[in-house]
From TrEMBL:
CC terms in the record's Gene Ontology section: mitochondrial matrix
Organism: Maudiozyma saulgeensis
Name of this chain's protein: Iron-sulfur cluster assembly protein
Pathway listed: Cofactor biosynthesis; iron-sulfur cluster biosynthesis
GO terms of biological process kind: intracellular iron ion homeostasis; iron-sulfur cluster assembly; tRNA wobble uridine modification
Phylogenetic placement of the source organism: Eukaryota, Fungi, Dikarya, Ascomycota, Saccharomycotina
Signal sequence extent: none
Summary of the function given for this chain in its UniProt record: Scaffold protein for the de novo synthesis of iron-sulfur (Fe-S) clusters within mitochondria, which is required for maturation of both mitochondrial and cytoplasmic [2Fe-2S] and [4Fe-4S] proteins.
Keywords, sorted A to Z: 2Fe-2S, Iron, Iron-sulfur, Metal-binding, Mitochondrion, Transit peptide
Amino acid sequence: LISKRSYHPKVIEHYTNPRNVGSLDKKSKDVGTGIVGAPACGDVIKLQIQVDDKTGIIENVKFKTFGCGSAIASSSYMTELVHGMSIDDAAKIKNTEIAKELSLPPVKLHCSMLAEDAIKAAIKDYKTKRNSTVLH
Ligand code: FES
Ligand code: FES
């Protein structure tokens, strides 16, 4: 029997030493913010990206997560993945990739889903901002 509380060492490592914790200026034109919550448990991830307008490359990324160890580890790993990536590639990242890297058990799959939702929301926010800038 696997306990829900038996975390994989990779989860514990990210939880203990999370990468890219913090905030970016929400009002900045080149920053996209994604805030998503998991209906299953009420946990919340805020993930922010700063994008180079010309190349579409994510130059900076920060997160804050109010949630379980797996949600924190998933966010932390997501920030490592997307740093230096184009927004188009980042939008294609699947939660299964994260779940596999962190060896998340089935009951914790929604934690990695939260990280996927957060990056997608951040990219969408950035694109919305950029489009409105172009139009006006
Ligand atoms: Fe308690 Fe997610 S249910 S932290
Ligand atoms: Fe809900 Fe992890 S238990 S995000």
